[in-house]
Design goal:
By secondary structure, the protein is mostly helical. It has twelve helices and no strands. The chain folds into two domains: 1-181, no CATH class; 185-356, no CATH class. It has helices spanning 7-33, 55-65, 69-73, 80-113, 119-144, 156-181, 191-216, 246-249, 251-275, 283-288, 290-309, 320-345. The longest helix is centred in the first third of the chain and has 34 residues, at 80-113. The radius of gyration is 22 Å and the shape is flat. It starts with 6 loop residues before the first helix and ends in an 11-residue tail after the last helix. 34% of the residues are buried. Mean pLDDT is 90; it is low at 1-5.
Length: 356
């Protein structure tokens, strides 16, 4: 079945949104790795679209940053030029978010005016808009958590929430695009595969949240060894675990969970690939079946390299660790999208299953 002519522009628009959200999440990673997230202390939706343009404007923004705990407790020796560097990444991250909003709104109004939306598209589009607005609100709540008291970084739990919601927005947009892109005869009904993919997706979301905890707590340097954790398979201090907060606040505990989930997911992906090895009547599914296992192997490698390279971190400099960490995040997004694709392809509402 060919895509309807009226659906093609909408599908291209949605895929453009997917690409822009991937870039936005990557920019968030750069912002975190460069310590730039708290450089802008206000959320001005309209007036904040432009960076400071004069020396007086820069002096004002720098004065605002000098009132933050991060400056007073960590970056007290920052020069104006160093401030401009971190300011750029946070400003560009916010600018790109505004650009996504424009790329969503302008074509939306055009497609609505030219009646290129089917009635079934309106509700998902409204959900997309609400998810985008929610993401912006959570982003500011996250930043605000690092501007008071003695905080020098944003709260890791809010960073994780911001990251997971961004991935939710990414996945929802991609799923919507797949509804317009994938021919109906390329979707098959595979209930057992669908259940397995949903299970893996659930584990992956938890794993991605723990990746955000690793980033938020800057935990990589707490155990820069592999395959052991500072010489131990099961760290002794885990015996002193006391409540849920221990598992999302203690750096060694976060290492243990993040690595353990990685091994479980690797096994799960191998089993999924074996299950999909036999033909199922869909060329799309046959090709897509190899994406997750390829990406998860690369993801594990990048995770190991990130940990081992963490000893080379130099504050204020972009080095090997930052490259590994950024690629680790990028591949995580692609891995998530590969599972969303598999889930869509094996979730046809057929009268009977095609499984043998």
């Amino acid at each position: 079945m060919k895509m309807e002519a009226t659906s093609r522009p909408v599908a291209i628009w949605l895929l453009t949104g997917v690409a822009m959200v991937v870039i936005q999440i990557a920019l968030g990673g750069i912002t975190r790795l460069t310590g730039s997230g708290l450089s802008i202390t206000e959320w001005n939706v309209v007036t904040g679209a432009l960076p400071p343009l004069t020396a007086a404007d820069w002096a004002l923004e720098f004065a605002k940053y000098q009132q933050t705990p991060q400056f007073r407790l960590l970056n007290f020796d920052f020069t104006l030029q160093e401030f401009k560097t971190i300011f750029f990444w946070e400003w560009f991250h916010r600018f790109w978010a505004r650009l996504i909003g424009m790329v969503f709104m302008v074509p939306f109004l055009y497609f609505l005016w030219t009646r290129q939306f089917r009635s079934s598209m309106i509700r998902p589009l409204l959900i997309l808009f609400l998810l985008g607005a929610l993401q912006g609100a959570v982003g500011w709540i996250m930043v605000a958590s690092g501007l008071t008291g003695d905080a020098i970084y944003v709260k890791p739990t809010r960073l994780a929430l911001h990251f997971v919601l961004a991935l939710g927005l990414l996945s929802y947009t991609f799923w919507f695009a797949l509804q317009l892109l994938v021919p109906a005869d390329q979707r098959v009904g595979l209930p057992s595969v669908r259940k397995r993919v949903i299970f893996i997706l659930t584990l992956l979301v938890v794993q991605l949240a723990y990746g955000a905890f690793m980033a938020g707590h800057k935990a990589a340097t707490a155990a820069p060894t592999w395959p052991d954790i500072n010489g131990q398979v099961i760290p002794d201090l885990l015996s002193s675990a006391n409540g849920f907060l221990f598992w999302i606040e203690n750096k060694i505990a976060i290492h243990f969970v993040h690595r353990g989930l990685a091994y479980i997911l690797l096994i799960a992906f191998v089993l999924l690939t074996l299950q999909l090895h036999r033909p199922h009547g869909s060329r799309w599914l046959q090709r897509a079946a190899w994406f997750p296992i390829s990406l998860v192997l690369l993801q594990v490698l990048l995770g190991v390299l990130s940990v081992l390279c963490s000893t080379s971190i130099v504050p204020g400099q972009w080095g090997l660790f930052e490259w590994m960490a950024q690629l680790h995040q990028l591949v995580a997004m692609l891995l998530l999208l590969s599972l969303v694709l598999l889930l869509y392809l094996c979730s046809a509402k057929a009268s009977g299953s095609t499984e043998s």
